[in-house]
Amino acid sequence: MSEAKDMNLFDLCAAFFRWIGRCCMTLIRWVGESLRLTWRWWFVVLPVMAIVLGMGLWYSRTDNRIYEVNAIAHLYGPTVDDVNQVYGALANALPMSVSATQSLPALLQLDPAATRTLRRFETFPVIDSRHDSVADYVDFKRKAKFSDTINVVMASRINLQFRTKQPDMVPQVETAIVNYLNSNTAFQAAYGTKLATLQREYRFCHEQIEKADSLSTAFYFDQGANKALMYDRWELLVGTRQIELVHPQIISLFRYTKKVDKELALATAPVVLEQGFVINAKPINGWKKWTVIGLVAGYLLGCLMALIIDRRKAIFAWLSQK
Description:
- Helix content is 55%, strand content 15%.
- It is an alpha+beta fold.
- The strands form 2 sheets. Strands 1, 2, 3, 4, 7 and 8 form a 6-stranded antiparallel sheet that branches.
- The longest helix has 39 residues, at 2-40.
- The radius of gyration is 34 Å and the shape is elongated.
């Protein structure tokens, strides 16, 4: 029985490698056929390549280049899902000819010329891989899992992205997007609750620090920490006195207070951009990329047209069959 299984596994591996070999031979035959077609019909293949290459270069011209623009937003009150829904409305905006109120210029309160080339409004999760509440990278490929305990998806940060052909208009669009998000009624209500919580945490932390400081000062300077003999009413106490702090982890309290102070200082609105929108200097449709695409696509299309011309009689005969 074991030998049969081993032979089956061997046969499976052999069949797999035979299939790989057949694929390689088929590819080689296709390459050979395309070279022969190119040699015979070069006056068809080369012009088609030139036309497609010209279209690619025209698409990647300077005034038509598309740039990605990204910004990491801190959320104070709204959740990531809330921002996904509200920001996603920009991607689903209707043309002005269909609905003036649901169009992109109306949503962002911008002139139509400023929104003419805006595309692909998307959000991406921000990942904290070190568990230190600091953003480590943005998951642009959306491969991070919410159930993963190694790479934590941050619940209070999100990456906002859009594409534009007018990079000089990004500051104006940034202001419009921030105003659009922060004017949301639900976001404002959630922000009010979050701000009240932060202010209460701020007061509590600083009060606890002051109490701990006052208690330790009173003990060390007023009563003395190293007294070996003390009178308590009619009893004589012998030993070393030790203080037990009000907060058992005073260092952790200081660190948490520092975090609350920073968060409260930044919490000026429901959605606050970390560094504003940053333009990716490498365009989506750069000329190098589209030169390669144009050459490959032009050659394949040219070979296809040459094949159709080369076998036109067989094709016409097949079409004429009843």
